[in-house]
Structures are given as structure tokens and as C-alpha cells.
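Protocol step 4 of 6: structure prediction from sequence.
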Amino acid sequence: MDKRNDSAEDENLLAIGGRIAESSTFGRRLREGFALSVLASASAMTALHFNIVILALPHIARSLDVPLAKLQWVVTGFSLAYSGCLMLGGRAADLLGRRRTFVFSLIVFGIGSVIGAAAKSIEMVIAARIVQGVGGSILFPSTVALINTIFAEGVERNRALGVWSLISSSGATMGALAGGVLVASFGWQSVFLINVPIAAATAISALFALPTDGRSIRRRSFDIRGAIAAAASVTLLLCFLTSAPVDGLISMRSMLLFGGSIASAIICIAVERSVADPLIDGALLLLPGVRIAMVLAAVLMGTFMTVPYFLTLMFQNAYGYSPIETGATLFVPSLSIMLGTQMGARMEARVGVRKLLVSSLLVGAAGTFSLALAIDPAYGLIPMIPSLLLFGFGQGATWSGLWILAGQGVSSDRQGASSSLVSTAMWIGGGTGLALLVGIAHWARVSCVACSGISQDVTGTRAVLITATAFILLGALTAMAARSNRAT
């Protein structure tokens, strides 16, 4: 009888223990889900803003009487600040605390949005974009580092990255739709103002959703000299790449910018070698996966994410679309981007990151090249839809695979540095790609001497798409060398 009672008590204890474990697991997943929703909301805000600003560019140009050559600085100003401060932002996330830097970055981004909404000149708009770029440069590495430390490497982290990518890309999708409505109904200033309540709500939620930062983090040092030198080098390089097509490669301004970039890079290397806690973690650069992820990030930003700039101008100038119609058109690839991010995360578990990246880039290249053949105002949007879908799917799947590759095998205390390295490469690629493609579009337009204004817009965009296809194919060749990293 006693044995039966003991056995029953053991079973009861096991049942209670099982319920406690289930309750603990459920609570942990609930906390992780809340944290992921906050992180993804911040990324969705920046993705939404990126799209709606591009949609607003023609209206900004007309409202403030801005020439096309200066208009690109609305995009380039953000890229300069973003890429120039990314290394500092990633290091700040690792040293000062990821939640602290995440909340601070949202405040900075919100301040930039207020400046943009109140802008009365193109200089103020560019200044607002620079402030937003600084905020974004801190926000992005903090977000990726938080995801890679909250979720364990493997299926759990890949699933979290997939959800993050889905919500982020939904921001881009909403931007394609909401941007046109906002510009048409409330003016281009509204594309800045909409960020303010989103940034405020996300910052407040982060204080409750994200894990607290440890006090020991503050004891580590900051390489401020290396940060300034790295930021100066990247900023001057992007200024050179942007101005060289206009001023000429051998102009005094171009040579000064390029020389200043090289000199700043040399100073940065010298400083990094002399400090105990360097800004740039050299061990990460030895990882083949991180290096490949940096190259692919540059290709992704310089091609896939730059092409909408030219499509927006073409749709409104050559096709005669309104902002709402342009937004509805860009909604097509945005939907396939969302699908691509989800399929990418699932495909990686089945075929591995190398096959995922190579196949995604090939699909994107096919969509980009076929889009170059399909654009023609005489036939409208319908012939372009299959190409836009392939273009978007390739971009979304590449995005997921890229961040899976960048985070594999990297220890938790280096996730911020790793993500900032890849992000810096991405925005350098974006600035380089935009400058190069603007120059190619201008060359194609000028070369088409017999073309009308509409034909020139189409010819320039077609040249941009063919050039982008070539670089995407080079990215696919690079991805063939990808493999998982060992922990470092």
C-alpha cells in the first residue's frame, strides 16, 4: 500500500514539474515574442520610411525646386550618416548595452523626422536625413545583436530572423501603399511626421519588452578616435563616389575627397593597432562568412534596394502615374519581398545558406533583366508584373540568407560588431551603387539624342536595370563560396 502511495506521489510530483516547465517555457516564449515584435516594429518603421521618402522625391523636387543632381542627396545624405556611424553604433551596442542604444537610436530617428517635417528648404531635408541616418546606424546593429542574443543559434534564431524580416518587409509594403496616399493627401512633409508616434511608442515598449543591460558593460572602453577616423573615411569615400560623376574623377574636389578618405582609413588602422579595445574586431574579418556577407550586403543595397529610386521617377515622369498609382505599382514587388523573406528562412534549413543565396540571387537577376526588357509606357504595367515578382522574391530571400550567414558562429558579445560590419558594407554599396547608376542613367539619356523626354527616362532606367543585373550575377558567384562560420 505504501509503495502504491509513493508511486502516486511521484507521479503527482512529475506532473506538477511538467506543468511548471510548460508554464516556464510558455512565459519565455511570450517574452521573446514581445521582444521580437518590438524589434521588428522598429525595422518596419525604417523600411516604411525608406520607401515613402523615395515616393515623395518627385514632389520634394517640385515643391522646393530641386534639380535631379541635388535630389539624390536626400538619399545619399542618409547613406553617408548611416554608413559612417555604423561601426560606432555596433560597438555602442556591445559596450553600452543593446537596450540602451536601441531606445536612444529611436529618439534620434524621431528628432530627425521632426526636422524633416518642418523643413522649408532642400538643405533642411538633407540635414533631417543625416540625423535619421545617425539614428538608423545605431538602431540596426542593436536590433540584429538583440535578435542574435535573445534567440539561440539554429532553428530558433532562423525562425526569429524570418519573422523579423517578414514584419520589416511589411513596413516596406505599407510604405509603397501609404506613401502615395500620404503624399497625395497631406503633402511630402507627412512622410517624415508619421515616424514620430511610431518611434515614441516603440521606444516606450522597448523598456518593458527587451532584456535589461548588465552594469559590467560600462566598464569596457570606447575607441572614440578610431570611430571618428572610420566615420570620416567612409563619409569622404561616399562623397567622392557621389560627386565624381558630376565633377570628374580628376577634379580638385574629387581628389581631395578621395585623398581624405584614404588618409582617414590609414589613421583608423594606426589607431586600431594601438588600442586595447579596438572599434573594428579584426577576428571577424578573418571569417569567410562575414566577408562574403559584407560583399553580398553591398550588392543587395547597390542593386535591389537602389532600383526603386529609378522606377519611382520613371513611373511618375514617363508613365504619368500619380503618387498613389506609383505606390500601388511598387506594392507588387513588396508582396513578393515578404514571401521571399519567409521562404528564404525555410529554404536555408533544407538546402543550406550557400544554395539559398545563389538561387535567390539568380532569381533576382532574372527578374531584373526581364524587367529591363518589359518596361514600355505604351503597354503599361501588366507586362512588368512577372518581372517585378521575381525581382522582389530574389531580394527578400537574399535578405534572409544574408543575415543568417552573418550571424552564424559569432559569439554573443560580438554580434553588434558583426552586424555593423555587414551593415556598413551594405550602405557603402548603396551609396556606390546609387552614384554609379545615376551616372549610367545620365549617360544613357544623353546618348539617346533622338529620344523624347519619355523615351530618355525609359532608356536611362533600362540601362540601370541591365547594369544592376550584371552586379547581381557577380554576387551569385561570390555566394558560391559561402559556408557556415565557426564560433569566434
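Step 5 (inspection) to follow. The radius of gyration is 24 Å.
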